[in-house]
Structures are given as C-alpha cells and as structure tokens.
C-alpha cells in the first residue's frame, strides 16, 4: 500500500472567542459524576463551546501550559471515563448542529442526544440502527466508546456506521476525515501534517483483535487500518470528536417487540439460538418470510427473582410469572407495514389451526411454540407504542433494581460499589459462560444477576456485594470471567469501554498483554504529545 494513502493534513480554524471557563462549584457539581457511580471528581473548570471554532480556540489558548482536558458528552459512561480528576472539562453538549439526511448519510454534532437524532430521522423516513438502549446518550460519547446496542446482532456497532469525523487535535487543529481516504497497514505510519507545518507520525498497531462483533478494548487495529477507526472507541484520549457523518438506512416498514418467559436459562439459550439461525438463514437466502430478528435480550433467574423480591415486578406493566426461570426479549422487523389488528388475526387463525399465509409472524410463533415460549408471550405490534414501551421498561428493570440495591447497601457500607462485567464470546460459548458466571459468584457467596445482549454473546454479570470483602471477591470473579472468555475467543471488554476503572484497565492488560499496551501508549504519545487529552482514561500505567 502506498504511503501516500497514509498522509493527511489538519487545518487551523478561524480565530474565535475563547469560551468562558466556568469555575462556579454549583455549576460544576453536575459535571463531576457519570453513570458509573464513582464518587464525584474534581475539575479546574468547565467550558461549553458552541462551535468547533470556540473549542479550537480554547485548546490553542491552553496549549502552552499543557492544560489537561477531559472531553465530556452525556456523562452516561459506566466506567468513570467522564469523571474529572483535575482537568478542565470540555463539554460537547452545545455542539448540536444536525444536517438534513442526504445520500443515505447525515452530519451530526457530537452534542446531539440519540433520542433527538432518532426522532428527527424517523420524521424523514430514516433509521440509525446501532443506538445503545439508553437514548439520552450523546452522539460524541457513543463514537468515543464505539457503543453497541440491542440491534448489534443484525447491524453491528457504531464503528460500522461512521462514515466521517471532524476531530479537534491536542493543539486545536481540525482533522476532517472520510472513511476510505486515509489507510495504512500494521507497522506503517499515519502522517498528519499540522497547520504549523509540523508532522505527527502515528504508528499503526500490529496487534490483532478476535473476529467479534463488538469490542471496546483500547485502540482499534485492522489490516488495513482506517484513520477514522482509530478515533472511534478511543474514549477522548486522541482527540475531541466534534462532528460525525453517520450512514443511515430507510426506516423498516414495521417492527414488533416480544417478551417470552421460559422455565430455565438453558431453554432461553436454545430459543435464542433458534431465532438467530432463522434470521441469519433468511438474510442469506433473501427470504422475506423469515423472522427478521434484529435483537435478542436476556435476563437470568436471579434478575427475575430480584424483581419479585424488591416488589418491582408488581409495578411493571407486564406480568412476571412466578415460575419463570429466564426471560428473552426480542425485536423483529417486518417486510411490510401491518396493523396490530391484522397481526392479531394472523396469530389467532394460526392458533386455531386455520389456513394462514406463510410469513414472519407465523414462523416466529412456530419457533416460540417449539421452545415452550409461546404461552407466556407478550407481543407489541406496530402502532402499539405504549405496549412496546412497557416491554422495553421490563428490559431496563433489572439493571435499575441492581443499582438501587447497591445504592441502599452503600449507604450502610460505604465500601460497597458496583462490580459488573461486560464480556463477549462467540454465541456457541454463551451457555458455558453463563454457567461459569453462576458458579464463580455462588462459590464466593455473592448475590448476582446476569442480563444483556444474548444474540451477540454479550452478557453483563453483575455482583451484589454486601461489604468490602465481597467487593474484592466480586472483582476476583471478574478476572476469572475474563480468563474464561479469552480462552473461548472472546473479550472481557465489549461495549462500555475502559474509562478510569482500575478493574477494566487490569482486564485490558490481561486481554492485550503489555506489548500491545506499549503500542497503544506510543500511539497516544504521537497524537497527543503533551498528554493533555483525558489523562488517566483507558490506558493503565506502565508496569
């Protein structure tokens, strides 16, 4: 590959007023925590630029003093990556420009919330599929962590949909990138010419990643590597993502959401396998009658028991059977618009044995019946928005109860904190990993719950530690989980990133090894010579 393809130029944006640095403690308070439940951090100030030029002016003005900067988006991080430790917070929340969709793409400011993006696209007949389940996140944060969502099974992760970036480098220069334009192979070098004529020489990593749908474990590597992909998933440590060009698809004509309760977890796993196989066969054969399942979510028996024990089950808008040992929530796209009345009629006729046309709903129902999941089925058809929202509410109920339990326990035992995993393995290994999660937690006397994206092989084992000793035991279990996942061709860091979590930084070291981490550090030094962008985030210190 020609070295010419690995060269690009950054530009100096026109001078603009430097945004006000806010130091009022009352204003700063809201920016000192994220969703990780880490204690509030400390910041030497906050800036909220309203344009790229203002953000660039701040970075230029503070460069001589090498002022440390923490890029921050929606503070939805589960790893502490948005918690400051003495930096100036550079919030992208006011970078909210959104263009009109054109040519199957849209340009979006980093501060746009996913909910706003989806609503605007829906009005224009488009869809952006890889959104995480939490729609209050901002676009910039999802790019920074290469976020995945429920529909990763069909559509992949954020990286797969990013067509271009506008990134502010450590000195305020703007680097505008389009996918496919700047490529290099492992061992080669990206050469970025700055506006003052100096050159950043960025080494392309030589480590390899397993062929999994979603990994958020340090800097991305591929052969060849697109410079766009280096910034996606870099957690704000290489540059400030100011604007993103996203690929879109036409909105599906219809969609239904289903929730099935099963007697045990093995049956849930087998049901998920059958749904995956039917969907994948339909895609490969272009069979519009196949069940076009885009997402399969899972809740284990401990999660259901937590809902019952806490009383949350009685407050949900869908009943949780007392005998259920697992739950599977799925989303299925329909090849044509169908009303709720028509869908209900089709299924009623099928149940009664009357002749019905072959199609996605009939094939879905057949699979569910074969796996003893049809009798407990709750379905929301197109147009039944309140019912669909009730099913999604169930999906979020277990993580919500875990967080509430931890909050109450921490009030009594301050050493208690969240200890949760974010592991991915090939789907064929999910059953083994689920058994390992239960075995290792149980052997340490730890209450726990497991949920997540079953169709991707990406589950979240979460402990319920009662004291400091159990927190340490839970972290010990996480290391065992990481080792077992790696042995099976998986990764212990799938979609939440690494952030400032000492546990996740240790898992990053375990996954990649020290030699790969040193390549990442060299890459970081090349793109951020002063080490001022998100210091302490993502990369563990050298040994």
Description:
Helix content is 34%, strand content 19%. The mean pLDDT is 95. The chain is globular. The longest helix has 28 residues. Strand 7 and strand 8 form a beta hairpin. By secondary structure, it is an alpha+beta fold.
Quick tags:
543 residues, 21 strands, seven-stranded antiparallel β-sheet, globular, 16 helices
What portion of residues belong to β-strands?
15-25%
- The helix-and-strand class reads alpha+beta
Tell me, briefly, the overall form: globular
Largest sheet: 7 strands, antiparallel
| Fraction of residues in helix | 25-40%
What is the CA-based Rg, rounded?
Answer: 24 Å
Give the overall average pLDDT. 95
How many helices? The count is 16
Number of strands: 21
Report strand order across the widest sheet: 18-15-17-16-20-21-19
Low-pLDDT parts are none
Distance between the termini: 35 Å
SSE topology:
Elements: E1 7-9, H1 25-28, E2 45-47, H2 52-61, E3 69-72, E4 88-91, E5 105-109, H3 114-123, E6 126-127, H4 139-144, H5 152-155, E7 162-168, E8 174-178, E9 183-184, E10 189-193, E11 199-203, E12 225-226, H6 227-231, E13 240-247, E14 249-250, E15 254-262, H7 265-285, E16 292-299, H8 301-310, H9 312-315, E17 326-334, H10 340-351, H11 360-370, E18 378-380, H12 385-412, E19 423-424, H13 430-443, E20 447-453, E21 458-464, H14 468-487, H15 502-512, H16 514-527
Parallel strand pairs: 1-10, 2-4, 3-4
Antiparallel strand pairs: 5-13, 6-14, 7-8, 7-13, 9-12, 10-11, 15-17, 15-18, 16-17, 16-20, 19-21, 20-21
Helix pairs in contact: 8-12, 13-14, 14-15, 15-16
């Amino acid at each position: 590959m020609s070295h010419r393809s690995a060269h690009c130029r950054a530009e100096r944006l026109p001078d603009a007023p430097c945004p006000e640095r806010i130091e009022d403690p009352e204003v700063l308070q809201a920016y000192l925590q994220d969703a990780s439940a880490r204690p509030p951090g400390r910041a030497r100030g906050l800036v909220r630029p309203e344009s790229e030029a203002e953000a660039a002016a701040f970075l230029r003005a503070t460069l001589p003093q090498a002022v440390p900067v923490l890029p921050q988006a929606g503070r939805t991080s589960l790893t502490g990556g948005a918690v400051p430790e003495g930096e100036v917070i550079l919030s992208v929340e006011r970078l909210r420009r959104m263009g009109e969709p054109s040519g199957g793409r849209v340009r979006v400011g980093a501060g746009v919330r996913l909910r706003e993006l989806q609503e605007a696209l829906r009005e224009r007949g488009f869809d952006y599929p890889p959104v995480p389940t939490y729609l209050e996140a901002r676009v910039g944060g999802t790019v920074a962590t290469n976020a995945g969502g429920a529909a990763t099974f069909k559509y992949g992760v954020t990286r797969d949909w990013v067509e271009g970036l506008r990134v502010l480098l450590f000195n305020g220069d703007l680097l505008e990138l389009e996918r496919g334009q700047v490529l290099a192979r492992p061992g080669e070098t990206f050469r970025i010419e700055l506006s003052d004529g100096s050159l950043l020489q960025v080494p392309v990593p030589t480590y390899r990643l397993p062929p999994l749908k979603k990994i958020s474990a340090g800097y991305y590597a591929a052969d060849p590597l697109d410079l766009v992909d280096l910034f996606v998933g870099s957690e704000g440590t290489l540059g400030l993502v100011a604007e993103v060009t996203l690929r879109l698809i036409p909105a599906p004509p219809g969609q239904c959401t289903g929730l099935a309760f099963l007697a045990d977890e093995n049956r849930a796993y087998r049901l998920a396998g059958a749904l995956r196989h039917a969907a994948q066969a339909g895609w490969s054969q272009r069979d519009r009658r196949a069940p076009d399942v885009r997402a399969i979510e899972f809740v284990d028996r401990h999660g259901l028991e937590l809902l019952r024990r806490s009383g949350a089950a009685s407050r949900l808008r869908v009943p949780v059977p007392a005998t259920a040992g697992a739950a599977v929530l799925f989303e299925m796209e329909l090849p044509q618009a169908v009303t709720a009345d028509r869908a209900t009629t089709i299924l009623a006729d099928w149940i009664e044995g009357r002749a019905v046309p072959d199609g996605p709903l009939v094939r879905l129902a057949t699979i569910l019946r074969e796996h003893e999941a049809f009798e407990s089925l709750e379905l929301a058809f197109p147009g039944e928005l309140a019912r669909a929202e009730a099913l999604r509410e169930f999906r979020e109920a277990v993580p919500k109860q875990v967080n509430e339990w931890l909050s109450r326990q921490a009030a009594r035992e301050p050493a208690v904190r969240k200890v949760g995993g974010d592991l991915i393995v090939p789907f064929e290994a999910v059953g083994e990993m689920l058994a390992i999660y239960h075995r290792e937690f149980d052997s340490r006397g730890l209450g726990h719950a497991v949920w997540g994206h079953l169709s991707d092989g990406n589950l979240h084992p979460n402990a319920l530690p009662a004291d400091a000793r159990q927190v340490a035991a839970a972290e010990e279990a996480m290391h065992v989980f990481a080792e077992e996942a790696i042995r099976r061709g998986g990764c212990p860091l799938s979609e939440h990133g690494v952030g400032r979590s000492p546990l996740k930084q240790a898992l990053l070291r375990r996954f990649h090894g020290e030699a790969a981490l040193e390549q990442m550090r060299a890459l970081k030094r090349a793109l951020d010579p002063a080490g001022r962008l998100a210091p302490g985030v993502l990369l563990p210190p050298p040994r």
